[in-house]
């Protein structure tokens, strides 16, 4: 294991002794693989800062801290973060459930989770001062731009106060990566290394009030009804992992594209991976173990596809790690002038609530509002329609989707949003026809009718284009809106604009983007729609849902 970590340090450019100048350095010390034994003599007080790593198992920072002395496990609820346009009450509610699980697990080991509400630097400074703490451990977070800037502030504070803040990898993402060459090997080294065991006991710092887990109302978050949201917590994640690998996953490859079948056939682990109630390494190794059993039927192809998507997950997160500004700036600079920077408010609102008059798009957006989840192809389709047919800026629509997704993972979301909007300069634009997608993915109309009951009387042949139905005059503009755009004309105009931009693109800039972000040839990165063509899949869709 030490050799694997050593390769990661060399490639990351980390100094022999960790610098706190930026949050982009990792600990020069591998985590302890053996937890402290009962009665172990404490040598120091250590603060373990939990972020999106809400578990005990395979937790590098916790394992290392447990071997160093008394621990203060901390989670900071940051009101400014929860006021951002890409966060929501449904995400907090899911997080609160995971925190309750984590608090119970830590309490069982003797060190209950301490929760504080406030600004990170202020909270950390107060606790470190009050409890004589000079070492803070956390995982390396590839979050949104706000968390990146917050970590910069924490690093500056730590450096000024002589606090050793060590950030440890918990995924295949590599800090300070100079080139994508060799990245896949480093990612594989990490995912194949032994998982770190859960500590058998923890020695806590005495005299701390645990602090209550606030409700979304207490945090003054906007009301966000999500009646079919997934529950949070590690036990929920483990149950999903077991049911997917033992039963649900056999039809994964053939069933994940349709909203009718994807809800069950997909692993539904994305929210647990995003919040860290499961580690990516344990999911990868559990899948490898299932593959080793050589199950029959359709399992082989399903498990291969799932492993491919787990690898793609790290691949896309590496993009944001390498370029944090991807959340706010077009990857290809020329695309900044492609669409109006100020999104059309009427179109944006109609798309957001499922009132565009394009039935399959509206059904998907209403389903997302009610569940916090959407299968991969439909994520791509609703983003494509917003960007091409409605000609809306990806930053505005990307924020809407981000706060609706319970499984929001910034490292996947923003690179994928840009890819589906034609602003990367390196991906061939895919302009989905929402009418065709409706007939292809919902051939019986069951999904569309469930979420658009106002279309109950529309004949099957016209369900995805009710404006062509003779009876539309009694429906459109009354119970259901007229289409907000002409699908054919809007698609044609978008194609002309996007491909016109590609013709005039700066080839030198595109070469730089490819060198920095493009995947290298790897047979695991398969296109699930063409399993016989084992080639890299540059058109991979929003794979957040797994």
Query: Span from first to last CA?
Result: 28 Å
State the domain count: 3
Average pLDDT score: 88
Widest sheet, order of strands: 3-2-1-4-5
CATH top level class name of the largest domain = Mainly Alpha
Topology:
Blueprint: H1 2-12, E1 45-50, H2 60-66, E2 70-77, H3 79-82, H4 89-109, E3 114-117, H5 120-130, E4 135-139, H6 145-161, E5 164-168, H7 183-192, H8 234-246, H9 252-255, H10 259-265, H11 270-275, H12 280-292, H13 299-322, H14 345-353, H15 359-371, H16 376-389, H17 394-404, H18 410-421, H19 434-441, H20 446-451, H21 487-503, H22 507-517
Parallel strand pairs: 1-2, 1-4, 2-3, 4-5
How would you portray this structure in words?
The protein is mainly α. The protein has three domains: 2-192, HUPs (Rossmann fold), CATH 3.40.50.620; 234-323, Serine Threonine Protein Phosphatase 5, Tetratricopeptide repeat (Alpha Horseshoe); 326-545, Orthogonal Bundle (DNA Cyclobutane Dipyrimidine Photolyase, subunit A, domain 3), CATH 1.10.579.10. It is 46% helix and 5% strand. The protein has 22 helices and five strands. It has helices spanning 2-12, 60-66, 79-82, 89-109, 120-130, 145-161, 183-192, 234-246, 252-255, 259-265, 270-275, 280-292, 299-322, 345-353, 359-371, 376-389, 394-404, 410-421, 434-441, 446-451, 487-503, 507-517, and strands spanning 45-50, 70-77, 114-117, 135-139, 164-168. A five-stranded parallel sheet has the order 3-2-1-4-5, with helices on both faces. Helix 13 packs across helix 18 (410-421). The longest helix is centred in the middle third of the chain and has 24 residues, at 299-322. Residues 1-41 and 525-544 have low confidence and may be disordered.
């Amino acid at each position: 294991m030490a050799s694997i970590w050593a390769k990661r340090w060399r490639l990351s450019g980390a100094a022999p002794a960790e610098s706190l100048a930026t949050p982009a350095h990792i600990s020069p010390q591998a985590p302890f693989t053996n937890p402290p034994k009962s009665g172990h003599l404490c040598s120091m007080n250590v603060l373990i800062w939990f972020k999106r790593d809400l578990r005990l198992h395979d937790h590098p920072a916790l394992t290392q801290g447990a071997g160093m002395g008394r621990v203060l496990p901390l989670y900071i609820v940051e009101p400014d973060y929860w006021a951002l346009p890409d966060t929501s009450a449904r995400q907090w509610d899911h997080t609160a459930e995971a925190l309750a699980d984590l608090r119970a697990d830590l309490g069982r080991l003797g060190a209950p989770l301490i929760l504080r509400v406030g600004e990170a630097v202020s909270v950390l400074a107060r606790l470190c001062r009050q409890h004589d703490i000079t070492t803070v451990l956390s995982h390396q977070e590839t979050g949104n731009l706000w968390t990146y800037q917050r970590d910069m502030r924490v690093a500056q504070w730590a450096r000024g106060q002589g606090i050793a803040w060590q950030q440890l990898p918990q995924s295949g993402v590599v800090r300070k990566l100079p080139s994508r060459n060799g990245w896949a090997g480093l990612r594989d080294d990490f995912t194949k290394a032994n998982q770190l065991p859960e500590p058998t006991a923890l020695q806590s710092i005495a005299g701390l009030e645990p602090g209550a887990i606030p409700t979304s109302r207490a945090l003054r978050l906007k009301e966000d009804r999500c009646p079919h949201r997934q529950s949070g917590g590690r036990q929920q994640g483990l149950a999903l992992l077991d049911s997917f690998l033992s039963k649900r996953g056999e039809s994964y490859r053939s069933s994940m594209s349709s909203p009718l079948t994807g809800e069950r056939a997909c692993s539904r682990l994305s929210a647990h991976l995003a919040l860290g109630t499961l580690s990516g390494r344990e999911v990868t190794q559990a899948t490898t173990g299932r593959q080793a059993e050589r199950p029959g039927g359709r399992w082989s192809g399903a498990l291969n596809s799932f492993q491919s998507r787990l690898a793609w997950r790290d691949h896309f997160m590496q993009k944001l790690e390498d370029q944090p500004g991807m959340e706010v700036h077009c990857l290809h600079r020329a695309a900044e002038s492609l669409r109006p920077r100020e999104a059309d408010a009427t179109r944006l609102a109609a798309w957001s609530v499922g009132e565009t008059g394009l039935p399959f798009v509206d059904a998907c957006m209403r389903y997302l509002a009610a569940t916090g989840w959407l299968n991969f192809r439909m994520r791509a389709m609703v983003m494509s329609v917003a960007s091409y047919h409605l000609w809306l800026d990806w930053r505005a629509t990307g924020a809407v989707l981000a706060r609706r997704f319970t499984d929001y993972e910034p490292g996947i979301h923003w690179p994928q949003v840009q890819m589906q909007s034609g602003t990367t300069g390196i991906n061939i634009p895919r302009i989905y026809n929402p009418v065709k997608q409706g007939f292809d993915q919902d051939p019986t109309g069951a999904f569309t009718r469930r979420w658009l009951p106002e279309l109950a009387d529309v004949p099957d042949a016209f369900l995805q284009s009710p404006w062509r139905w003779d009876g539309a005059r009694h429906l459109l503009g009354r119970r259901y809106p007229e289409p907000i755009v002409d699908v054919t004309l809007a698609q044609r105009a978008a194609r002309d604009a996007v491909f016109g931009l590609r013709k005039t693109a700066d080839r030198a800039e595109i070469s730089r983007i490819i060198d920095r972000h493009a995947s290298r040839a790897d047979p695991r990165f398969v296109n699930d729609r063409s399993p016989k063509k084992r080639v890299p899949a540059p058109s991979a869709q929003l794979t957040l849902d797994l």
